[in-house]
Each structure stands twice: as structure tokens, then as C-alpha cells.
User: Which sequence fits this backbone?
């Protein structure tokens, strides 16, 4: 006679949840502590470099959404002068194909991710807004030179504390956690 | 003589008799009401934090130290919400249902002994009163489900009736074991009879009572009434604002009340060394509540027919056998040292649970349609 | 006196916590018993097949991310396989291995999500979900490290993958692979013996072997019914013939088997990952492919064993830059057709968990 279903499975499960009571929480107290995102993050905005852009419109052709509007005229030195470079980030799906397509490294994905706007019109960015600034830093997506300069990403890892105690934490996150931890 | 009666006597020397009778009663009711509402708010916070830690997250920690004021913010938000009654719903019953759910929960606290003399009404049939009053909530839940004019709510309402009726029986039979051993139905005397907590005399009775009450207070794994993954929120799907808050308070008040009853019946109530009685009672209540939260964090939900089968085929026969064992022990072995009874009952409990597990079959439940 | 009863229709969804998206079921109930069921889909229809016909072959890859968004890298994989078959492109070794690593981690991630939400449908109040998401979170971090996104990866390209792995990827991946079996053991401890879970799932909502085959079910749903059919073994695409792994097969086809097969597949995926990481060669990650690909006139069908079943892409080329016809065979749409057969006669609660055990993704069904 085999006795198996007298509650042993439930007891085992409850033992496991009890064990988790003593493991560190994995959540991040977002506004107070922020994780370093990937160096290749495809953040919420594009960064456009005026000096590098030749106005070839390869990015506009690569865009699956037809999102990039670029208008040029021929300048004095037989080059293209960009009159208008407009990206509707509301329709953009941040696939990064335009950045990969750009032959002159004139376009990069942004690193920021807190770029919500209150009006639909505000997410359409023109060529002044798209340029690099303090809040709009380029990421290393398809740009190995930029990637090498960026800080490393935070990872959620277990680390062995002298074999016995397993502890969970975000790698290279500051010791100080948010309130109530 | 309880504190309330002493207060009445003292006041009777100053005020006219009718005022001396009524005013202490009202004061006592307000004290208990305040205690219940504040404890419920703390318990809501405590459950959310503890559940968070079981699930390796933090739980609410923003408002106040450790997020203690989060339930207040939640209450404020709920109170400011629009009160909606479904267009085709039964307006009067829809309005009455939360009251009927909430009031019996408060009435249970009248007989909970918080100390040797700190009890609102030391009824000589206290435990019968608890059983009678607490099952009134089922009517309220049924009314809520019926009046909402919603199919999910109706399913929940019908589940309620089945569940409440089924689990009442094993709960009452388990209480009878306690009453037999204590020799009284008064809550105060049940507590004073526990030189050793009854949990070690009647482990099986405790398990049955605990599971039965968890089912009665509709908490996981018996939370079929508000199974959020199946019938969305069950009986309170159409409730909002203050009425929803009443259900919410009622649910946690129910949990608090039953945690108090479990502590009183099986864990020795307010008895304990060194600390004042109220602290001992709260420690035990929090312990019981934590186990309920722990179960909620771990266990999936039963199906409705399995829930019925568990009550009728599992808990009820075991409760009857348990009652017979306790009765025989009380009758035949009155003078024996308690530890022998303890050992016997633990053996009985283990053997019964393991034997009953053989009846636990898997599969089945399909109905030909 | 007999009480007069009549069945009533309950409309579940599209806004229902357990429909895993915007799925709607018109359920006819007799009390709690399901008498009839009519699935209604299309609330998330975006016309991806038609959109694909107006985009170049590369531009379709981000669209495939939006099919099964729980395992979007496998969608990329199936699509680029179809295009490479169509255009006859040979891809570098390292890219093949990277694709395998990504596909197998995606499988684990998708199965963790499936099992977690299956338990959530059972009423386990988020705890298994959060334990499983802890591991999935680590994977998402790794994907973010590789391709910069956590949900819509857009990582595979025609002829390889878009980026090489960063230097810190492999150590982290090795650590994850080494830890994973222990976590799967923990999930087993939490779930596999739990009496309530067994009572709810064993012998419940059985999908018989014959029915499973005749509706062309695939993936864990088919294998739980006892059919040993895994495209990784049956039609080894990419380099799956180089790896040593087993195909777990259920016995009865009930909800427990569907759960069990997923957990076992996660273990086997860890085995594949160990081998793939050990064998990973150096080299290029993308073949030389023209930016505007014009495949020769013809048609191709690329299919893979996605986490949820056989995911196929059928492409017809007319030698232009966009496919003439772009068709998707989503696994869950076809597995979903078994739902009605499974749940008739069972309770509402069983309907919910059976729907969860199929592991649907509405982005793929409605596409």
C-alpha cells in the first residue's frame, strides 16, 4: 500500500514558499534606484548627428513604417543640405533598422526611456530636437564605438556567499535600496 | 464579572439606571468597533507585505514608514469612487447586501475574550452564538450575487450557499470536541479550561476547524466565490465605492474574527506568561493570519465539486470520528495525565489523515451533456 | 417535482483576466457545466500578412516580433529560415549556434510563462508566476544585452543575426544555464506533487491522441497526448541534428501532461544550451546579403518547433523586393481548435485552466 497524497505535496510547496520568505526581493525601487540599461539599448528616441548626415535617405528607405521624413536640397558644394528631418516617435517601433542602414553613422538609437509626452504632437521630433543633448544620449546599438564607452548593464544574479547562503541581487547596484527594504 | 459590568455598576451609582445600562454598552461597542476597523486596516497592510515577501517582491512600501498608510490611501480612493448600481439590478438588495455581510462580522467580536474580564458579553452559549451569527454573512453574499444581475455574480452566489452549508457541519463538529473537553460553551471558560492549549489535545480537530473556517471566510485555496481567474470577482463584481469597501472590510474582518476564534478555542486565547493578555491574543491572531496568508501564497484553488467532496467525504467523517474519540476520552479517561491523551490523539490524527488520503482519487468530474 | 432549469450563455472575454489577451468565449453553461463553446477571435487583428506584402524582406522581421510576443525571437528564426530557403543563403556557423541559443532560451522563457500563468488560472495567486519570472527576467536582461530590447527583439537577420554576442554575454549565460536545473527542481517541488494541482489537472480535459493528430495540433499540446512529434527531430532544421536531447512525451493528454511536458522540455532545452555554448565557434555572425534582397521566383515554407508548436512561414516570391504572398501558420490558432472538444462536459474552472494549458498567444492567433 502506497501513501502519497496525504498532504505531503502541499507541505513541500509551502516549505518552498517559506524558504522564499528569506530570500531578498528582486524588485527595484524604480524612481529612486535605476538599473543601468544595456549598452545596446534601443531606447525611446533616435539621435541624429547633423554633421555626419549626408541626406542620402537610406534610413527613410529602411524604415518599415515610413516614419522618417527627410527633405533635402542641393547645396553649394554639390552636397545635400537637410532641410527637414522629422521622426514621428509615436509611430516608431524602435526596430533599429534605420540605424543599421545608415552608412555614415549619422543616426543612433537613444538611451533614454522616460520620454512620455502629454500631446501627440510632442512626439514628432524635428531635426533640432533629434540632435544629441544631455537628455538624448546615443546608445551603442550597431555603433561599436559608442558601445565601448558606455557603462555595463545591471544583471540579476545569484552570488555564492561562502557556498552556503545564496543571495539574489542586481549586479553592481548600489547597496542602498529604497524605502522600506 | 466583566469589565463592562463593573463599569455599569460604577456608573449606576452616579447616573440613572437606564443611562448606566446603555452608555457603557455603547462605549464598549465603540471600543470593539475601533479595534476591529484599525486591526483590519493593519491586517490588510500586513497581508500585502507578507504576500509580497513570499513572492520575492516588496509589497506596498511607499506611503508612510514601511507603507503602513497604504490601506488608508486605498480606503480613501475607494470612498471617492462612484457608486454604481447595475441598471437591471435589484437596488434595495444590492444596497443591503454589504451591510448584511459586514454587521455579523462585527457581532462576532462581542463574545471574543480579549482578557480575563475584557469581553463585551460573556454569553454562556458564546460559541453557539459565534456559529449562528457568522453564517448570516452567507445570506449577504447570496443577496449580493443575486441583486447584481450578473451571471458571474450569480454563479458565485450559488457557490456560496453550497460552500457555506457544507463547511458549517465539520466546523461545528470540531467545535463540539472543544466544548466537550472544556465542559462549557462560554468563551471565557473555554479559555480558562486550557491549561494546555487544545491544539495539542486535538490536532485533528484543529486541522478540521482551521480548514473549515478558511473555507468559510472564502480565502485561498477555497476562494471560489471570488475566483478572480474564473468568475472574475464573484459576488462583488458589480460593486464599487463604499459598498465594495464594506465587502472588503467584511472579508478581512471575517478573517480577523475567525483568527480570534481559532486562537480562543485551540491556542489558549489570551493566556500566556509575562505579557498582558491582549498582547498574547494578538500574537496568536497574527500567527494564525500569517498561516492563512502563507496558504494563499502557495496553493491553487479547488474546483467546486472537489470542494464539496472535500467537505462531505473528507472533513465531515473525520470530524465525527474525532468527536467520538474526544467524547470517549473525556468519558473514560478523566483522571489520566494529559500527555497520554495528547500522544494518543496525535497518533489518531496521523492515522486518520493518511488513511483518508487513500480515498483521494484523481480525475473524474466530467458530466455527459 | 423537478425544478425547471435551462442553460444560459456566459460571455467570457474579451476583457477577462484569464483569456491571456483579448480572446472571447461564448460559453453555454448548464449550471457550472460547459455545454457548448464558441470561440471568437480577431480582437487583435492587425493584418500582418497583408502588411508583409508591402514591405521588404528585412522590414518584415520587426513585424514577426509582434506575432507570438512571448517568444518573439523564434518568430524571427522561422521567418529568416523561410527567406534563406527561398533565396538559397548559407549562413555562418557562429550565427547558427547563436540562433540555437536564442531559440532554446526563448523556449524556456515561454514555457516558464505558460506554466506560471497556467498556475495563475488555477488560482495560485501569482506566486509561481513570480518565481518563474525571476528566471525569465534574467533571460530578458541577456536579450537586452544582445539586441537592446526586452520584448520585440528584431535580432535575427536574413543570413545570420544582427549583432555578435557582447563579451559579457557568455559568462552570464553559462551561469544561468548552470543554475537553471536547480530552479526547475524548485518548481517541481512547489508544483508537481501538490495535491490540489493534481486533483485539478490529472485526468481533466483529455485531448485524445487521434483528435490531436486530426486537428493538426503541434508542440506540447500534441506531445502531451502521446505523439512523439518534434520538428527538431522529425525535420531537423538549422543544426539541431548536432545536439543530443530527448523529446518528452505525455501519456494521457490531460492538463497535467501538458504542464509536465513543458517542464521536461525546459530541462531538455537546458541540455541543448549546455552543448551549444560548449560548441560555439568563433567567426562571422552574418553572411553577405544584399540590402534589398530579391529572391528568385518561387515559394518556400520554413517551419520550426516554436515553444507553442509548429510555426511556419510560407513565402511566395515574384523576384521583387517584397514577397508576393506572406502567410503565417501560427501554432496556437490550430491548437486552439481543440479547446471545444476538450472542455465539453467539464466545469467553468476546467475551461479556464484548459485554455491556459494550451498556452495561447493572441498576437499570433489574430495576427
Assistant:
Amino acid at each position: 500500500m502506497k501513501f502519497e497524497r496525504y498532504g505531503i505535496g502541499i507541505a513541500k510547496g509551502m516549505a518552498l514558499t517559506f524558504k522564499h520568505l528569506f530570500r531578498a526581493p528582486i524588485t527595484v525601487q524604480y524612481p529612486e534606484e535605476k538599473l543601468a540599461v544595456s549598452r545596446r539599448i534601443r531606447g525611446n528616441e533616435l539621435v541624429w548627428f547633423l554633421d555626419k548626415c549626408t541626406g542620402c535617405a537610406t534610413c527613410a528607405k529602411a524604415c518599415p513604417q515610413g516614419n522618417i521624413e527627410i527633405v533635402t536640397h542641393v547645396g553649394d558644394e554639390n552636397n545635400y543640405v537637410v532641410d527637414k528631418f522629422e521622426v514621428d516617435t509615436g509611430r516608431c517601433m524602435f526596430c533599429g533598422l534605420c540605424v543599421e542602414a545608415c552608412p555614415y553613422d549619422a543616426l543612433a538609437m537613444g538611451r533614454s526611456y522616460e520620454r512620455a509626452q502629454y500631446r501627440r504632437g510632442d512626439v514628432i521630433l524635428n531635426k533640432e530636437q533629434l540632435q544629441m543633448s544631455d537628455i538624448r544620449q546615443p546608445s551603442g546599438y550597431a555603433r561599436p564605438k559608442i558601445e565601448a564607452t558606455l557603462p555595463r548593464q545591471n544583471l540579476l544574479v545569484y552570488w555564492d556567499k561562502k557556498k552556503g547562503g545564496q543571495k539574489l541581487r542586481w549586479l553592481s547596484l548600489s547597496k542602498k535600496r529604497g524605502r522600506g527594504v | 464579572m466583566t469589565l463592562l459590568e463593573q463599569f455599569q455598576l460604577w456608573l449606576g451609582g452616579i447616573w440613572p439606571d437606564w443611562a448606566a445600562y446603555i452608555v457603557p454598552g455603547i462605549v464598549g461597542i465603540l471600543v470593539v468597533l475601533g479595534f476591529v476597523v484599525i486591526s483590519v486596516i493593519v491586517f490588510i497592510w500586513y497581508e500585502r507585505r507578507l504576500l509580497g515577501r513570499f513572492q520575492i517582491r516588496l509589497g506596498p512600501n511607499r506611503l508612510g514608514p514601511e507603507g503602513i498608510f497604504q490601506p488608508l490611501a486605498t480606503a480613501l480612493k475607494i470612498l471617492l469612487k462612484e457608486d454604481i448600481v447595475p441598471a437591471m439590478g435589484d437596488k434595495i438588495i444590492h444596497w443591503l447586501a454589504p451591510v448584511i455581510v459586514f454587521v455579523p462580522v462585527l457581532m462576532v467580536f462581542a463574545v471574543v475574550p480579549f482578557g480575563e474580564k475584557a469581553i463585551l458579553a460573556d454569553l454562556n452559549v458564546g460559541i453557539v452564538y459565534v456559529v449562528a451569527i457568522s453564517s448570516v454573512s452567507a445570506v449577504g453574499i447570496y443577496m449580493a450575487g443575486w441583486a447584481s444581475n450578473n451571471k458571474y455574480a450569480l454563479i458565485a452566489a450559488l457557490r456560496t450557499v453550497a460552500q457555506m452549508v457544507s463547511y458549517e457541519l465539520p466546523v461545528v463538529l470540531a467545535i463540539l470536541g472543544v466544548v466537550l473537553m472544556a465542559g462549557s460553551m462560554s468563551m471565557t471558560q473555554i479559555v480558562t479550561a486550557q491549561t494546555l492549549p487544545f491544539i495539542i489535545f486535538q490536532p485533528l480537530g484543529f486541522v478540521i476547524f482551521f480548514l473549515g473556517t478558511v473555507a468559510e471566510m472564502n480565502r485561498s485555496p477555497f476562494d471560489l466565490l471570488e475566483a478572480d481567474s474564473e468568475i472574475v470577482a464573484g459576488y462583488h463584481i458589480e460593486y464599487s465605492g463604499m459598498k465594495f469597501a464594506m465587502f472588503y472590510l467584511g472579508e478581512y474582518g471575517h478573517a480577523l474574527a475567525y483568527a480570534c476564534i481559532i486562537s480562543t478555542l485551540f491556542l489558549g486565547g489570551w493566556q500566556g506568561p509575562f505579557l498582558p493578555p491582549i498582547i498574547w491574543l494578538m500574537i496568536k491572531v497574527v500567527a494564525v493570519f500569517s498561516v492563512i496568508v502563507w496558504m494563499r501564497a502557495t496553493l491553487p484553488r479547488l474546483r467546486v465539486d472537489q470542494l464539496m467532496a472535500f467537505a462531505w467525504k473528507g472533513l465531515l467523517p473525520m470530524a465525527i470520528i474525532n468527536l467520538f474519540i474526544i467524547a470517549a476520552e473525556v468519558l473514560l479517561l478523566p483522571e489520566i495525565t494529559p500527555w497520554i491523551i495528547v500522544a494518543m490523539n496525535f497518533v489518531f490524527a496521523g492515522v486518520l489523515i493518511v488513511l483518508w488520503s487513500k480515498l483521494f482519487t484523481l480525475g473524474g468530474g466530467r458530466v455527459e451533456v | 417535482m423537478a425544478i425547471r432549469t435551462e442553460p444560459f450563455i456566459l460571455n467570457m472575454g474579451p476583457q477577462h483576466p484569464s483569456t491571456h489577451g483579448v480572446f472571447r468565449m461564448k460559453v453555454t453553461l448548464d449550471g457550472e457545466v460547459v455545454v457548448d463553446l464558441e470561440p471568437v477571435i480577431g480582437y487583435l487583428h492587425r493584418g500582418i500578412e497583408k502588411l508583409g506584402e508591402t514591405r521588404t524582406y528585412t522590414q518584415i522581421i520587426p513585424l514577426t516580433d509582434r506575432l507570438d510576443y512571448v517568444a518573439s525571437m523564434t518568430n524571427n528564426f522561422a521567418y529568416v529560415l523561410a527567406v534563406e530557403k527561398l533565396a538559397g543563403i548559407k549562413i555562418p556557423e557562429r550565427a547558427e549556434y547563436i540562433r540555437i541559443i536564442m531559440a532554446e532560451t526563448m523556449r524556456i522563457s515561454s514555457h516558464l510563462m505558460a506554466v506560471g500563468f497556467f498556475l495563475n488560472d488555477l488560482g495560485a495567486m501569482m506566486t509561481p508566476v513570480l518565481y518563474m519570472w525571476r528566471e525569465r527576467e534574467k533571460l530578458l536582461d541577456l536579450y537586452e544585452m544582445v539586441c537592446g530590447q526586452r520584448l520585440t527583439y528584431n535580432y535575427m537577420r536574413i543570413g545570420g543575426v544582427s549583432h555578435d554576442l557582447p563579451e559579457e554575454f557568455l559568462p552570464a549565460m553559462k551561469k544561468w544555464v548552470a543554475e537553471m536545473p536547480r530552479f526547475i527542481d524548485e518548481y517541481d517541488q512547489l508544483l508537481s506533487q501538490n495535491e490540489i494541482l493534481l486533483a485539478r489537472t490529472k485526468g481533466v480535459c483529455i485531448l485524445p491522441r487521434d483528435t490531436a493528430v486530426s486537428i493538426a495540433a503541434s508542440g506540447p499540446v500534441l506531445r502531451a497526448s502521446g505523439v512523439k512529434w518534434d520538428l527538431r527531430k522529425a525535420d531537423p532544421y538549422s543544426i539541431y541534428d548536432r545536439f543530443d536531447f530527448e523529446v518528452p512525451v505525455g501519456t494521457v493528454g490531460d492538463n497535467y501532461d501538458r504542464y509536465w511536458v513543458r517542464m521536461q522540455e525546459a530541462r531538455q532545452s537546458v541540455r541543448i544550451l549546455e552543448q551549444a555554448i560548449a560548441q560555439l565557434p568563433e567567426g562571422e555572425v552574418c553572411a553577405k546579403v544584399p540590402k534589398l534582397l530579391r529572391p528568385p521566383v518561387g515559394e518556400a515554407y520554413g517551419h520550426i518547433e516554436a515553444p507553442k508548436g509548429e510555426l511556419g512561414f510560407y513565402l511566395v516570391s515574384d523576384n521583387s523586393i517584397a514577397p508576393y504572398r506572406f502567410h503565417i501558420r501560427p501554432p496556437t490558432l490550430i491548437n486552439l481548435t481543440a479547446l471545444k472538444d476538450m472542455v465539453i462536459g467539464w466545469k467553468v474552472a476546467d475551461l479556464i485552466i484548459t485554455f491556459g494549458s494550451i498556452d495561447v498567444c493572441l498576437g499570433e492567433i489574430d495576427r
Remarks:
- The mean pLDDT of chain A is 78.
- Chain A has two domains: 2-27, 46-150.
- Helices of chain A lie at 8-20, 58-62, 97-101, 144-149.
- Residues 46-150 of chain A form a domain with the Alpha-Beta Plaits fold (CATH 3.30.70.3270).
